[in-house]
C-alpha cells in the first residue's frame, strides 16, 4: 500500500510540473522565444494617447477605431504600465516620457523609441502635447502659459524627457494671483505638474490645480469653462476648434509600445502592431524572431 501511495504521489507531482510548464511565463518558451496568446491592452475612449496611437498605426481607418473587442481597457498611463508589468503576454502603449524600467519598450520598424529618434524623424509614432483655451484667458492663465513657452518652462519639458518647442525667451511674470484649473490628458499631466511646481517657485501667490482625466474631457471642460486650460495629447478635432478652442503645442512626445520585461520580443513592425491591435495576430509566436 505504501508503494502504491508513493507511486500515486509521484504521478501527481509529475502532472503538476507539466501544468506549471504549460502556464509558464513568456521567457519559458524554447530558447527564450515568446509564445502564447497575446493580451492586448488599450486606453479608454477619449484618451488622446489612444487616438494618436490608433491613427498613427492605421488601427483607425478614418471611419472607426478597429481595436479588437477583446482588448483590456485601462483608464490612465499608470494603470496601463502596471497591467503590462503584471502580465507576461501583454502589450500596451504609453507616453515615452512616462517610460521606466518596469516594462520594456520595443523598437518599431527597427527604430528605438528615443527623444533623439523622434527629433530626427526616424521614430514615427509621436504626437503633440497641447494646452487649449477658449475666449479671453485670465491674467493668471496667460502668465502660466507664457511661463510654459519660455526658456524656463521649455527647460522643464526637456528635463522630463519630452521634445521642447521654440521658446519665447526669458520669462517675466505679470505678477497675477489667484486660482487656475488645468485639466485633461493623463499623458500630459506629469509634465504639467512639474511645470506648475516650477511656476509656483516664481509666483508663490498663484494656486494651480492640475486635474487628470483624458484629452476629450480636457477639451470639453475647457469649452464649458470647467477648466481654465485644457490638456490634450492629440490634435484637436474640427468640432473642438469650431467650438472656439485655440491649441498651443507645448511639447512633442513619442508613444512607446511596451511589453512585459520577460518578453523576448524586442522589435515589431508597424504592420505587426496593427495586426495585434485589430485582432489579426493573436499569438506571440507569430511575431517572434
TrEMBL record:
The complex is composed of two ATP-binding proteins (PstB), two transmembrane proteins (PstC and PstA) and a solute-binding protein (PstS). Keywords: Lipoprotein, Palmitate, Phosphate transport, Signal, Transport. It is a lipid-anchor. The keyword Lipid biosynthesis does not apply. This is Substrate-binding domain-containing protein. Part of the ABC transporter complex PstSACB involved in phosphate import. It comes from Faecalicoccus acidiformans. Belongs to the PstS family. It comes from the Bacteria.
Amino acid at each position: 500500500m505504501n508503494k502504491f501511495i508513493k507511486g500515486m504521489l509521484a504521478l501527481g507531482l509529475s502532472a503538476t510540473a507539466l501544468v506549471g510548464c504549460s502556464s509558464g511565463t513568456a521567457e519559458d518558451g524554447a530558447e527564450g522565444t515568446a509564445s502564447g496568446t497575446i493580451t492586448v491592452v488599450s486606453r479608454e475612449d477619449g484618451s488622446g494617447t489612444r487616438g494618436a496611437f490608433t491613427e498613427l498605426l492605421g488601427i483607425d481607418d478614418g471611419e472607426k477605431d478597429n481595436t479588437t473587442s477583446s482588448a483590456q481597457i485601462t483608464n490612465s498611463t499608470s494603470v496601463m504600465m502596471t497591467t503590462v508589468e503584471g502580465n507576461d503576454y501583454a502589450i500596451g502603449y504609453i507616453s515615452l516620457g512616462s517610460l521606466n524600467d518596469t516594462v520594456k519598450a520595443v523598437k518599431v520598424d527597427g527604430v528605438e523609441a528615443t527623444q533623439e529618434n523622434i527629433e530626427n524623424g526616424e521614430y514615427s509614432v509621436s504626437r503633440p502635447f497641447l494646452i487649449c483655451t477658449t475666449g479671453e484667458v485670465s491674467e493668471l492663465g496667460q502668465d502660466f502659459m507664457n511661463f510654459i513657452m519660455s526658456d524656463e518652462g521649455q527647460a522643464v519639458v526637456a528635463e522630463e524627457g519630452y521634445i521642447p518647442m521654440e521658446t519665447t525667451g526669458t520669462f517675466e511674470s505679470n505678477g497675477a494671483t489667484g486660482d487656475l484649473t488645468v485639466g485633461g490628458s493623463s499623458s500630459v499631466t506629469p509634465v504639467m505638474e512639474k511645470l506648475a511646481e516650477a511656476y509656483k517657485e516664481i509666483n508663490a501667490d498663484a494656486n494651480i490645480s492640475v486635474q487628470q482625466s483624458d484629452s476629450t474631457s480636457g477639451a470639453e471642460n475647457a469649452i464649458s469653462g470647467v477648466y481654465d486650460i485644457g490638456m490634450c495629447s492629440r490634435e484637436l478635432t474640427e468640432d473642438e476648434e469650431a467650438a472656439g478652442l485655440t491649441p498651443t503645442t507645448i511639447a512633442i512626445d513619442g508613444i512607446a509600445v511596451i511589453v512585459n520585461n520577460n518578453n523576448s520580443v524586442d522589435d515589431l513592425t508597424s504592420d505587426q502592431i496593427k495586426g495585434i491591435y485589430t485582432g489579426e495576430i493573436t499569438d506571440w509566436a507569430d511575431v517572434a524572431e
